[in-house]
Write a structure and sequence with these properties.
Structural class: alpha+beta
CATH topology of the largest domain: lpxc deacetylase, domain 1
Largest sheet: 7 strands, mixed
CATH superfamily of the largest domain: lpxc deacetylase, domain 2
Catalytic activity: a UDP-3-O-[(3R)-3-hydroxyacyl]-N-acetyl-alpha-D-glucosamine + H2O = a UDP-3-O-[(3R)-3-hydroxyacyl]-alpha-D-glucosamine + acetate
Helix content: 10-25%
Radius of gyration: 18 Å
Pathway: Glycolipid biosynthesis; lipid IV(A) biosynthesis; lipid IV(A) from (3R)-3-hydroxytetradecanoyl-[acyl-carrier-protein] and UDP-N-acetyl-alpha-D-glucosamine: step 2/6
EC number: 3.5.1.108
Strand content: 25-35%
Pfam family, one: LpxC
Distance between the termini: 33 Å
CATH architecture of the largest domain: 2-Layer Sandwich
CATH class of the largest domain: Alpha Beta
Protein name: UDP-3-O-acyl-N-acetylglucosamine deacetylase
Shape: globular
Number of domains: 2
Number of helices: 7
Number of strands: 20
Order of helices and strands: EEEEEEEEHEHEEEEEEHEHEEHEHEH
């Protein structure tokens, strides 16, 4: 069955790129509502924005959604990953600014907040998107692919590969089934990262104005500049998988299939969803039986599975 929150979860922090203070409240929502954002600081016009693939604006550094009146919310990928990874299907997210709070740079503060208020089961079955045909998008530097699983009841499987010149990251690859709380245990505490050589360029472009060593992993060659070092030896590829789950959540329903990414990012994952939905017969909407529902990322998640390394 579908889930929403038992009560509201409140988060306060700073936007990674804007540097602005922001307050965000994830509120319960009715069955079949889906996930929507509402800009509470917008006094004139429509402040509602659906968390959906077809309202995404292309950006290499974050995921931004924009409604028909130009009202936007950016850097939503970490909270969307947390909702998907905790099995929340319906929520209204109120936010008083144009960017979600970065918190510690991972999804784990959102996971902790969601699970602390708990979930409420709703009187509606979960519907999921079953991938029926292989879809692939490419750029000169990488590619992303969705393909059918051997069994739909396998849920979502993910394989990711990255490669950076900095030895602190280098080449990393990982493959996971995201069933039964894997996201919370294995990916949720992995933080966003960047190269020290890119920081000045990002700030000159008006980005990363709220970035610190406390909310991002900064590497320089073979050195990790952020205090405390890495949470995982392969934290970078784990974070890329976290981002991908958040971006795939904009499909509007859990995906049953295999996602593969090679040097992929936000824009490529969104292009992949657009390609899938544009191809008749590449997917179908299914009502989940108990076995399939049990394989979804948020099924059976418990608070004691939250990685303790990230507790403030």
């Amino acid at each position: 069955m579908q889930n929403t929150l038992r009560s509201s979860a409140i988060f306060e922090g700073t936007g990674l790129h804007s540097g602005a203070a922001v307050r965000m409240i994830i509120r319960p929502a009715p069955a079949n509502h889906g996930v929507w954002f509402r800009r509470t600081d917008v006094e004139v016009g429509n402040g509602l924005i659906p968390a959906r693939w077809d309202v995404v604006e292309t950006s290499p550094l974050c995921t931004e959604i924009v409604n028909g009146e130009g009202v936007a919310v950016s850097t939503i990928e970490h909270v969307m990953a947390a909702l998907a990874g905790c099995g929340v299907h319906n929520a209204l997210i109120e936010i008083d600014g144009p960017e979600a709070p970065i918190l510690d740079g991972s999804s784990v503060p959102f996971v902790r907040g969601i699970l602390s208020v708990g979930l409420r089961r709703q009187n509606a079955r979960i519907r999921a998107i079953e991938v029926l045909d292989t879809i692939e998008v490419q750029t000169p530097s990488g590619w992303a692919r969705l393909s059918p699983s051997a069994e739909p009841s396998n849920g979502l499987e993910m394989s990711f590969e990255i490669e950076f010149a900095d030895a602190a990251i280098g080449r990393q690859e990982k493959r996971l089934s995201l069933a039964n709380g894997t996201f919370v245990r294995e990916l949720s505490d992995s933080r966003t990262f960047c190269r020290a050589s890119d920081v000045d360029a990002m700030r000159a472009a008006g980005k990363a104005l709220g970035g610190t060593f406390e909310n991002a992993v900064v590497v320089d060659g073979d050195k990790v500049l952020s205090p405390g070092g890495l949470r995982h030896a392969d934290e970078a590829v784990r974070h890329k998988m976290l981002d991908a789950l958040g971006d795939l959540a904009l499909a509007g329903a859990p995906i049953l299939g295999l996602y593969e990414g090679h040097k992929a990012g936000h824009a490529m994952t969104n292009a992949l969803l657009r390609a899938m939905f544009a191809k008749p017969g590449a997917w179908r909407l299914v009502t989940c039986d108990p076995m399939t529902a049990a394989s979804l990322p948020g099924a059976g998640v418990e608070s004691d599975e939250i990685p303790q390394v990230a507790v403030a």
